[in-house]
């Protein structure tokens, strides 16, 4: 993968970036995504944010090698701290992290989202945490997709500002994804159910307690929610 040939995962994220928006890519790593979007003439300005020194330096080097220093500014900082109001950022991308971490980044930096209209998020696991944050903070799911690459399954969630009540089932599996129910969706949740059943079986063999009983009930609820979609 490089700035001109993204992985399918990042190409999917890129496909949701609106033309001429000002982008902030948080956790940008090598800054492949913003570089790709500039090369594609989708955007002309971006901020690549990194909190880890090595990836930050890799992003600086990549942007320089691509000759895009005038279009992409690489900034060192934690989460949304790298953006300011005067940047006029309209779109934020966060890809390749766990859902709870993405949600915590958005929560910590939510005061930075006043002028942001689109969040494009690609959690590696536990996308539910993002949907829960979105409902709480007044963002609605505009698009969702699920894809498989190198035997790993990823979800991409696009949020816009607006109210969006979700059921427990929709929070867990995604309101759009559960309507489409692709083969990859079914594969993901079939694997999850098997893992929950394995844990459930183990829990049934250990001495009962309030904690164990609570976990068993939680697993039974999740299995019930998902099985009716398979």
Helices and strands, with pairings:
Elements: H1 8-15, E1 23-26, H2 32-39, E2 46-50, H3 53-65, E3 72-76, E4 91-97, H4 99-108, E5 118-123, H5 128-137, E6 139-149, E7 152-161, H6 168-173, H7 177-180, H8 183-203, H9 210-227
Parallel strand pairs: 1-2, 1-4, 2-3, 4-5
Antiparallel strand pairs: 5-7, 6-7
Largest sheet: 7 strands, mixed
CATH 4th-level superfamily of the largest domain: Vaccinia Virus protein VP39
Question: Quick one: overall form?
Answer: elongated
**Strand share of the residues?**
15-25%
CATH class of the largest domain: Alpha Beta
Strand sequence of the main sheet, in spatial order?
Answer: 3-2-1-4-5-7-6
Please trace the helix and strand order, writing H or E for each element: HEHEHEEHEHEEHHHH
Span between N and C termini? 34 Å
Helix content class: 40-55%
Taken together, the total number of domains comes to 2
Mean pLDDT score: 96
CATH fold category name of the largest domain: Rossmann fold
Q: Give the tally of β-strands.
A: 7
Structural class: alpha/beta
Uncertain segments: none
- Assembly of the depicted chains: single chain
Number of H- or I-type helical stretches? 9
Radius of gyration: 19 Å
Give the name of the CATH architecture of the largest domain: 3-Layer(aba) Sandwich
